Fold this protein.
Amino acid sequence: MIVLLLWGLSDILVVLAVRRAGASAAFLLSQSIIVLLYLGAGLLIGMPSLTTTTALLVMLGGILSLAGTLSFFKGLEQGVVSVLSPVAGCAPLVTVATVLLFLGESLTALQMAGAGIAVLGVLFSSFRKRDIFSLELKMLERGAAYGFIALICWGLMFALVDFLTPSLGWFYPLFLIKAAALVLFMLYFTAQNGWQNMQWQRMAAHWVWILLPLIGVLEFAGHLLYGYGVSIDQTALVAPIAFAYPALTVIIAHLLLRERLDGSQYAGVAMAVLGIVLITV
């Protein structure tokens, strides 16, 4: 339940941050805090040794994490949170499909039903009722396209985390992937003269400098608690609750940001959340 609260609240804070500071600045500062917190915890635990293959997989995960998170932030900057969060939150659907195809895992009947419900939920939440049967990309709700990119990238990234966990443990895969994503972003940002082009005036408000580190702390705490729950064999209890966090995000967006959806879209959000809960059971 704590993980649900942390991740659900984090999405709303990201909305406030990116719409004030921009996606690039929000990514740079919030992810830097996450990596620093991971690094501090890692120094206490001890750093693992990496093989060449593992390092390459971590780098691939970093690319996927970077693409997914930047897409998510960009979508929140200009899109509808109540649509984007449930769509991106269906990333476990891609993760499950990937491990099913490449790692030889199997699905229960309940998980297969959850996958179908989640797909329908994403479809219904991404289109207004009048446009749902046209399925034209131009009719997608604002931000939904970015949500689909985040869904695919994060889903593949978590499949890599699943693959790396037996050799690195539950803590290090996500830490190393987040660190790789931050390094890649800073290299790209520097090459594109991003520091000179950064619109620092957009970050003049003091609350932005409080909000961005807070996002990093909430996301890190959520990952840490989720990982701990998995490590003590409580996945069946932790995962369904934690991955229902988009429901909380939608509720807060409705109350705080005054977002309104069609009835079919609210039904789609509920279906997407239910589907992900069933997949992670």
Q: What stands out?
A: The two ends are 15 Å apart (CA to CA). The mean pLDDT is 81. Residues 83 and 277 are 17 Å apart (CA to CA). The chain has one domain: 2-279.
